[in-house]
Amino acid sequence: TSQNFYPLKLQNELYIKLLDDSIVAAISDIDLLEYVTNKAYSN
Q1: CB under 8 Å to 22, separation ≥6 — which residues?
Q2: Which ranges of 1-43 would DSSP assign to H, the alpha helix?
Q3: Confidence at 5, pLDDT banded by 50, 70, 90
Q4: For residue 20, what pLDDT band results from cuts at 50, 70 and 90?
Q5: Model confidence band, residue 1 (pLDDT cutoffs 50, 70, 90)
Q6: Sign of CA dihedral 24, 4, 17, 15
Q7: Residue among 40, 11, 41, 16 nearest 28 (CA)
Q8: In this structure, are residues 20 and 37 in contact, taking their beta carbons and an 8 Å threshold?
Q9: What is the spatial distance between Cα 36 and Cα 11, in angstroms, rounded to a whole number?
Q10: Are 28 and 14 in contact (CB under 8 A)?
Q11: Domain regions of the chain by residue span
Q12: How far apart are CA 4 and CA 31, in angstroms?
C-alpha cells in the first residue's frame, strides 16, 4: 500500500478529515494535544 502524507494547516481540519474518513491518523504538536485534552476535560 502507498502512504501519502498531507499537511494539516488548521486545527479544525484535523477533526474534519478524521470524521469524514479522508485520513485515518494524524501527528500533531504536543501543545495542540494538551490544549484539546484540557478543553475537553475542563467542560
Answers
A1: 16
A2: 11-19, 30-42
A3: confident
A4: very high
A5: low
A6: positive
A7: 11
A8: no
A9: 10
A10: yes
A11: 11-42
A12: 24
What is the rounded CA–CA span in Å between residue 5 and residue 23? 9
C-alpha cell of residue 34: 494538551
Using 50, 70 and 90 to split pLDDT, how confident is the model at 43?
A: low
Of 42, 30, 33, 2, nearest in space to 15 by CA: 33
CA distance to 2, 24, 32, 42, per residue, from 16 (Å): 22, 11, 16, 22
